[in-house]
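For reproducibility, we list the full input for the glutamine complex.
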Amino acid sequence: MKIALLAFQGDVSEHERAIESLGAEVRLVRRAGVIDSCDGIVIPGGESTTFMRLMRGEGVDQEIIEAKNRGKAIFGTCAGLVVLGRSRYGLGLINADVKRNAFGRQRESFEAMLDIPALGNEPFKAIFIRAPVMEQVGEGVEVLARIKEGVVLAREGNILASSFHPELVDDTRLYRYFLRMVEEGKSRG
Ligand code: GLN
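The corresponding predicted structure, in tokenized form, follows.
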């Protein structure tokens, strides 16, 4: 299984380590021509405006849209969620209205233990850093976790989006969940 990891900026090496620890291969994406040979895509945290600019410059945004339409699984975390969601900063590939920097100065960065039934009974330690939330999600979107400010983990078909940073904790359950989505996409495609 090959995962295309957007590597324009952001916490790339932590994602790489987590994905490889589960036996999948990682291909770093800094230009067009890599995504096509991969089974799934991860868009890490960073700065969504920078991501969008660099992706557009390289034509990688079009490749992501194409991958989505072909049923490949795509996982966006934090800025990656902004890139996938609906706002003037994103591609609108998940039916969710996204608010960037949703927690303001007071809660720039914090941890929360989340109940995520889809991952089992153990709470998940979620790290939020200048995080976005999904303020409103449309039909077809499965809400996997929510806090008082909004939805922080959701899935719609082959798209998975989290407000928080799974690469910063040792718990690999969310990656395993994503890799199962990648498998499903492969067997469909
Ligand atoms: N605030 C950033 C943005 O909206 C996301 C922060 C992050 O990815 N840690 O692009």
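Residues 173-188 form the longest helix (16 residues). The longest strand covers residues 150-156. Both points were considered when choosing residues for closer inspection.
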